[in-house]
Design brief:
By secondary structure, the protein is α/β, with parallel strands linked by helices. The protein is 44% helix and 13% strand. The strands form 3 sheets. The protein has a 6-stranded parallel beta sheet with strand order 3-2-1-4-5-6, with helices on both faces. A 5-stranded parallel beta sheet has the order 8-11-7-12-13, with helices on both faces.
């Protein structure tokens, strides 16, 4: 069985990422601008090709007002309107085309069952035209723009797409720094298309760079290769290996998705596998209850140890619960148990796990990912004040390098070195 694809969804910018915008935009913009200048009675030089292309990927109305800063706002808006008219004509007359490799890559992703969406700083009419004229609607399940209901910016588009797709297992692909910023605001990795429309001097720090679209599928598959290497490092070989493995980290390092993908990968090898979730710190004195995903009901440490890990380690069948927070859990002796949770380096829990992988990531990265998933200020304050200190105390008492089988850098969800 093939390894499962490591992301549930891939989100794309439109212009310069999927669409060869320069084919129709430059001639349309020049014709539209000349029309507008004539209507306004202006004798003015046209912007350069580089200036026209610098608008691509930015909120277009503000971009035009900035480019034509010497004009009154309503005059700049008229230039935009005429350019847009010419652009629509050019696209519907056969001028629109996908960039090389896009159709093949989207077809391959669709065959893997990946959900695909667009987040673009354009307006609805342009988005609809682009979807239909080049056939993107046959691959793209959802698309958002500046006129989508409730949307204010590209970060909001991505948040809405993630909610619609029902996942945080996603990656953003784009060519401008604004795409990277929107991805990071939602805790997602960003793949930068280097041959897109980012102007000279625009810095686009990202998790991966591709020179052309055809490289994308292999780059995304790097996450699977990363996880496979981690499993090999702790003794998993094909269908053989330990019967239990813990995945732990400080909050925000991505352990939930890492553990999910570990369980999927082991199952794809023919190993019966169960994923269990360890509980976060006590909730009675903190707002942490709002931080938990209700679909991932956790087991407290003592229940996890006494009723699951210890009998499973003895080769016994497990039947646990139901408890106040979980339904009944049944675990057959031959099943591999993947446990995800905090504080698994504690000696009592560590003793119940054959292998332990600790994910490490910089604090700024982790807090950014937490903030992307939580909009409750009380919870964020609890994370910064209480949870971070509890995690530091645990690491001081039980250093990961001493008690774990593998300490893995996890700042890049696309994968890295072991």
């Amino acid at each position: 069985m093939d390894a499962p694809f490591p992301f549930d969804a891939v989100l794309f910018d439109l212009d310069g990422t999927l669409l060869a915008t320069e084919r129709f935009w430059l001639p349309a913009a020049r014709v539209g601008a000349r029309r507008a200048f004539e209507e306004l009675g202006l004798d003015r030089d046209l912007p350069s090709a580089e200036e026209w292309m610098s608008l691509v990927g930015l909120p277009i109305k503000q971009g035009f007002r900035d480019l034509f800063a010497d004009l009154a706002p309503e005059q700049a808006d008229l230039v935009l309107e005429r350019c847009t008219e010419e652009e629509h004509f050019a696209m519907t007359s056969g001028g629109a085309a996908l960039l090389p490799g896009v159709a093949e890559t989207l077809t391959a992703l669709a065959a893997r069952g990946v959900a695909m969406g667009i987040a673009s700083n354009c307006y609805q009419g342009y988005l609809d035209t682009a979807l239909e004229t080049v056939g993107l609607s046959s691959w793209i399940g959802q698309a958002r723009c500046l006129e989508s209901p409730g949307i204010r910016d590209k970060a909001g588009m991505i948040a809405d797409l993630l909610e619609t797709f029902g996942t945080q297992s996603a990656v953003m692909v784009g060519d401008r720094a604004a795409d990277r910023d929107a991805a990071h605001a939602n805790g997602l990795p960003h793949v930068h298309l280097a041959n897109g429309f980012a102007p000279r001097g625009e810095s686009v720090e990202c998790e991966a760079v591709i020179g052309d679209f055809g490289e994308l599928e292999a780059v995304l598959g790097g996450r699977t290769r990363w996880i496979e290497a981690a499993l090999a490092a702790v003794g998993f070989e094909g269908e053989h290996g330990p019967r239990s493995v813990g995945i732990t980290s400080r909050e925000g390092a991505g352990r939930a998705l890492f553990a999910r993908d570990v369980a999927r990968l082991l199952a794809s090898r023919g190993r019966p596998t169960r994923l269990l979730v360890g509980e976060r710190p006590p909730r009675g004195r903190s707002p942490a209850v709002h931080f938990a995903d209700p679909a991932r009901a956790p087991l407290d440490g003592e229940t996890l140890l006494a009723e699951v890990l210890e009998p499973h380690g003895r080769g016994e069948a497990v039947r646990c619960g139901p408890t106040a927070t979980t339904g009944a859990i049944e675990l057959r002796p031959e099943e591999t148990c993947v446990v995800e949770g905090p504080f698994l380096t504690h000696p009592r829990l560590r003793a119940g796990l054959e292998r332990l992988i600790v994910l490490e990531a910089e604090e700024d990265y982790r807090l950014r990912r937490v903030a992307a998933r939580v909009d409750d200020p009380q919870v964020l304050e609890w994370v910064r004040r209480d949870l971070l200190e509890a995690e530091r105390a645990c690491d001081r008492a039980h250093p990961p390098a001493r008690v774990a089988d593998l300490v893995l850098r996890a700042d890049n969800a696309l994968g890295g070195a072991i």
